[in-house]
Write a structure and sequence with these properties.
Immunoglobulin-like; six-stranded mixed β-sheet; 3 helices
Length: about 550
């Protein structure tokens, strides 16, 4: 008998958990005549079954009034119950609900549990002129939108209840009575940018972003078309709220011809497909111009400058624009023929600092000031009706020592501190690429420790990373934890290579002998991060 009483008590406890029941979706403004077409969907978001006998549905206009009292019905966890008019064939219970359509002031729908205490209230439209209460019993302050005819109001996530109608409900163009609500995430293509034309094989980067406050259930699909021909279809795994993803897509196209690129993003239930499509027009380039070297941190009294390389099958004169991260610009023209040309603001100061640069390689323009704490330079080709981005480069603070330039490694998109004996090579070809790195076991190795910097020895920091697109930070710290040198600051690096440390600090002074800490951090294009802390000894 005791066991029977305990079982009965457990059943009463289970069936007395009304807080698990919420209004999950409602259609209050069907297309055409409302009579018989309105419905309310309840959902059990708890872990126990709930007996709904005696629960009430109320409709709020000027005040909340009862429209339906539920008979005995056990609503199991994760299940739906549909109450609707005579023309709602899916409804388990049919009744005339007479829901308010909004349009001028707040209306509402309320579920009242059998105990009369727990409620779940949906308020929609505003203002709340009649002071309809929410689940606190006070006049509601959060309102779902008033939807168009034929749309339902559906919870953003099935069963998720924050007691704030504005946060919990969205208009649903495809109502789903008695079924899970479609998850409405707004994905968008924020931007698309093609890498500089240096060969027929090119790369376009597309930024996809989740503009919603939730993550979708299903993956999206990104399709890439070149001249109306599908080149690639890529699945985009669900993104977290506000998160974004760079997608790199490769394509082959003759560079002397015009091309059209189109990107189409499809996500089931996306409420705003207008931002899911973007096109780029690529004009055939007869001039091939690239950023090659820049001096952003010169010695005191010496000028800043930017070097361009003219290369390709048929370079010819053209008009260009250089822009920094703040939007400052300068316009200039380049001459016919291949070679290296230097943009300067003060040609006299530049010649005094670099007398070995041929005068015919100097182009005077109002060059924007290059920031020592990092900047981004974008190079555009000027067309009659548009600007075509053909190259860009971003650098961080501490990317070089004072008096050293940043130079592009020949034949690549990677940059480094100049390896020239004079610290730079304006108007001339950059130094050749480094010798191949030694083979190592693992992702990172420190070679050459201990080393004598004053005797010309250098430390090698050798890396071997997965994937093609990586960026790195590499910092040197002394034993007091003070950062003494930046060898890489968010620097794009090839999969295999090495950095060199000459034993100097960021001001170019030799550091005293002793133990130093090396902090390495690299990030792959997938977002995966590799960190390593190790040591090296600098000797006399």
């Amino acid at each position: 008998m005791l066991r029977l009483w305990l079982l009965a008590g457990f059943i009463l406890l289970v069936t007395a958990m009304p807080a698990a029941v919420v209004i999950n979706e409602l259609l209050y403004d069907p297309e055409g005549d409302d009579t018989g077409k309105e419905w309310i969907e309840l959902y059990n978001n708890g872990e126990q079954s709930v007996n709904l006998q005696g629960a009430r549905l109320e409709v709020g206009g000027s005040s909340f009034t009862d429209v339906f009292t539920l008979p005995y019905f056990i609503l199991r966890p994760g299940r739906y119950l549909l109450i609707g008019g005579s023309l709602v064939p899916e409804a388990t219970f049919q009744t005339n609900l007479a829901l308010q359509n909004g349009g001028s002031e707040t209306d509402g729908v309320r579920y009242v549990a059998p105990d009369g205490i727990y409620t779940d209230t949906v308020l929609y439209d505003s203002p709340n002129s009649n002071q309809l209460p929410d689940d606190t019993g006070l006049p509601g302050l959060s309102f779902a939108p008033d939807v168009s005819a034929g749309y339902s109001l559906a919870r953003v996530l099935n069963g998720l209840d924050t007691d704030a109608s504005e946060m919990d409900f969205l208009p649903c163009q495809q109502p789903s009575p008695g079924l899970p609500n479609p998850v409405s995430c707004d994905y968008a293509i924020i931007g698309a940018e093609v890498s500089p034309y240096s060969q027929a094989f090119s790369t376009v980067e597309v930024l996809v972003k989740n503009l919603s406050g939730i993550s979708p259930v299903h993956p999206a699909e990104l399709r890439f078309y070149l001249d109306d021909l599908l080149q690639e279809s890529r699945e985009i795994a669900p993104l977290a709220p506000g998160d974004s993803l760079f997608c790199s897509l490769d394509f082959v196209a003759p560079l002397t011809e015009d091309h059209s690129l189109e990107f189409v993003l499809e996500l089931p239930g996306d409420p705003n497909p207008e931002n899911n499509r973007q096109t780029l027009d690529l004009w055939g380039l007869a001039t091939y111009v690239f950023l090659s070297e820049l001096m952003y941190y010169p010695q005191v009294g010496k000028p800043e400058w930017v070097e361009l390389e003219l290369d390709g099958p048929s370079p010819r004169a053209g008009n260009y624009l250089l822009e920094d991260a703040s939007g400052n610009t300068c316009e200039f023209s380049v001459p016919n023929g291949r070679g290296y040309y230097v943009l300067v603001s003060d040609s006299t100061a530049f010649v005094n600092a670099h007398p070995d640069c041929p005068s015919e390689r100097i182009i005077r323009t109002n060059l924007p000031s290059l920031n020592n704490d990092g900047d981004c330079l974008r190079l555009y080709q000027c067309r009659s009706d548009s600007l075509i981005l053909i190259d860009s480069f971003t650098y961080s603070a501490g990317s070089t020592l004072q008096g050293y330039s940043l130079e592009r490694v020949e034949g690549s998109d990677y940059w480094r501190q100049s390896t020239s004996e004079t610290g730079s090579s304006p108007g001339r070809e950059n130094q050749s690429a480094q010798p191949p790195p030694p083979e190592i076991s693992g992702r990172l190795a420190i070679l050459g420790s201990p080393f004598r910097a004053r005797a010309g020895e250098q430390l090698q920091i050798v890396y071997d990373l997965p994937g093609e697109n990586n960026s790195a930070n590499c910092f040197i710290y002394d034993q007091a934890g003070r950062r003494k040198r930046i060898l890489a600051g968010n620097l794009a690096i090839p999969p295999k290579g090495y950095l060199l440390w000459d034993g100097r600090d960021q001001e170019g002074r030799y550091l005293p002998s002793g133990l130093y800490f090396i902090l390495w951090e690299s990030r792959a294009s997938t977002g995966r991060i590799y960190r390593r802390q190790t040591t090296a000894i600098l000797s006399d």
